[in-house]
Amino acid sequence: MKKLAPKTIALIEAGSWYGVVVILIAYMGVSFEFFEPSNPIPVFCNITGSFTMLLDAWKDKNWQPVVINVIWIMIAMVTLFKVF
Q1: Residue 41 near residue 26 (C-beta atoms within 8 A)
Q2: Is 0.85 topped by the overall pTM?
Q3: Which of 2, 26, 34, 68 has the lowest tally of Cβ within 10 angstroms?
Q4: What is residue 33's predicted lDDT score, i.e. its pLDDT?
Q5: Which value, to the nearest 10 degrees, does the dihedral of the CA atoms of residues 45, 76, 51, 27 take?
């Protein structure tokens, strides 16, 4: 497997922090009733946030976070399809 360039690694790491922030925003928004659970905003946050953390975990071959983020994305996608 080809080794990733340092700039690519830095971009993936920064993206993962984006994921942490938006998933926390989505969770807090639903928990504190700023959003309904089916609102597309927290659903979109969950999909994009999990995807960025998935990339970071995949890069490191850290399979437990890969699995949980794949499942998290699938749940959010089902919710998104229910909304629309």
Answers
A1: yes
A2: yes
A3: 2
A4: 96
A5: 40
Q: By the 8 A CB rule, do 70 and 54 touch? A: yes
Domain ranges in the chain?
A: 9-83
Q: Are 76 and 27 in contact (CB under 8 A)?
A: no
Rounded to 5°, angle at Cα 24 from 66 and 69: 15
End-to-end CA distance of the chain: 39
SS in 3 state form for the chain? CCCCCHHHHHHHHHHHHHHHHHHHHHHHHHHCCCCCCCCHHHHHHHHHHHHHHHHHHHHCCCHHHHHHHHHHHHHHHHHHHHHC
What's the pLDDT tens digit per position in 37-63? 889 999 999 999 999 999 999 999 999
Q: Report the pLDDT value the prediction gives residue 1, as an integer from 0 to 100.
A: 60
